[in-house]
Amino acid sequence: MHPNLFMIMIGISIFSHLPMFLCQDNEQYTACGELSECANIQGIGYPFWGQNRLPYCGHPHFRLNCQGDAPIITILSMDFRVLAIDNKTQTLTVARQDLWNNICPIFLYNTTMDFNIFGYSIRQRNISLHYGCTRFPVPLKNQFLCNVNDTPSSSYFTMGETPNFVINNTTITCNSNVIVPVNETSTEILSSLSATTNNLTAALDGGFQLQWDANNMYCTQCNDSGGRCGSDSSNTSFACYCLDGSYARTCRNTDQTGKGKTHLKSIPVAVIAVAFAVGIGILVATVFCFRRKFALSKTDKFKNVKVFLKSCGSIALKRICTCYARQS
User: Fold this and answer.
1) CA angle 55, 60, 65 (to 5 degrees)
2) Given a cut of 80, is residue 200 above it in pLDDT?
3) How far is CA 41 from CA 24, 67, 176, 208, in A?
4) pLDDT over threshold 70, residue 303
5) Tell me: the pLDDT tens digits for 260-273?
6) In what order do the strands lie in the sheet with 245-247?
7) What is the rounded CA–CA span in Å between residue 4 and residue 234?
């Protein structure tokens, strides 16, 4: 290979790769901009993560298991099926996994909730499921049978949180009581005299709403500044991912604590301008020297150089244009 051709190739290579290096997006910013699909729910973003959505793109307590027919979120060691997610109102509808299509679970637990992150919607009501109860003399509409140790046992459902209940001056006592929230509409149906165990199953499967607080205010501020919400993988605190790096709250060079952050890409225009000038200088100098020495030559080597420049010389320009489009 002719030495001048070799110089030109080096110049083009350096010039074309500098913009590519300087214009690389923050990897976390790019990743967290992608919404994911989990089981039967699409368009899932912050604070949720799981499957193809990386942990730093969500809140540590909002991991979704996407292996089944519905997303599963675990709250204080209890699994809930996620039926719906509303990012505008920061609410999700969930149903207890152990009570899904099943009013006779193996283990009997009250519904537990992490109130540091979640809160019940005002449209929810509690119902009580009573297991291992004394039998009432006549069948009741709110009565159902469950096997306890392979033995049929009388069970009942009532409105509210009632450890024992009285019917016709008869107190019915039970071995276990489980409290479960259901939506307001289901409560009204279960309160009617015609309520059946089918209505109970439908109420439990219909789930209830939770309001979440996963640094909601910080996330709004981050989004408004052009960033994408996530969490710091080193300490699980909130992080705002921006094109030029990550920040504590918003996309700017000084976070709200007053501590400045320095990033290599915090002055991208100046750096790109210098790289552009250097690249142009290298390219022009090598081409000028080549043309000066071989201006009168029509050899095959010269033709090869012209063909090479014609086919490859626009690489750097294309990458500069791509960089400008992504920055704007």
Assistant:
1) 65
2) yes
3) 31, 12, 35, 17
4) no
5) 343 434 344 444 44
6) 228-231, 238-242, 245-247
7) 50
- What is the arrangement of strands in the sheet containing 91-96, beginning at the earlier edge strand? 64-65, 72-75, 78-86, 91-96, 208-212, 118-120
Mean pLDDT on 196-213: 95
Q: Beta-carbon neighbour count of residue 160 at 10 Å?
A: 12
d(CA 15, CA 205): 61
Q: What is the pLDDT of residue 19?
A: 43
Structure tokens, 299: 């050899």
Query: pTM here?
Result: 0.71
Tell me, what's the pLDDT at 309?
44
In tens, the pLDDT along 63-72 reads: 999 999 999 9
Q: Cα torsion at 259, 273, 11, 294 (round to 10°)?
A: -170
What is the spatial distance between Cα 28 and Cα 232, in angstroms, rounded to a whole number?
Answer: 10
CA distance from start to end of the chain: 41
Residue given tokens 């626009």 in the structure block: 314
Placement of tokens 């320095």 in the chain:
262
Phi, psi for residue 212 in degrees, rounded to 5: -110, 155
* Element housing 245 (H / E): strand 245-247
Average pLDDT over residues 70-82: 97
Burial zone of 104 (CB within 10 Å; 0-12 exposed, 13-18 middle, 19+ buried): middle
d(CA 287, CA 289): 6
Residue 172 near residue 164 (C-beta atoms within 8 A): yes
Does residue 45 have a pLDDT over 60?
Answer: yes
- Average pLDDT along the chain: 78
Distances (CA, A) of 181 to 6, 59, 121, 274, 299: 74, 25, 10, 63, 86
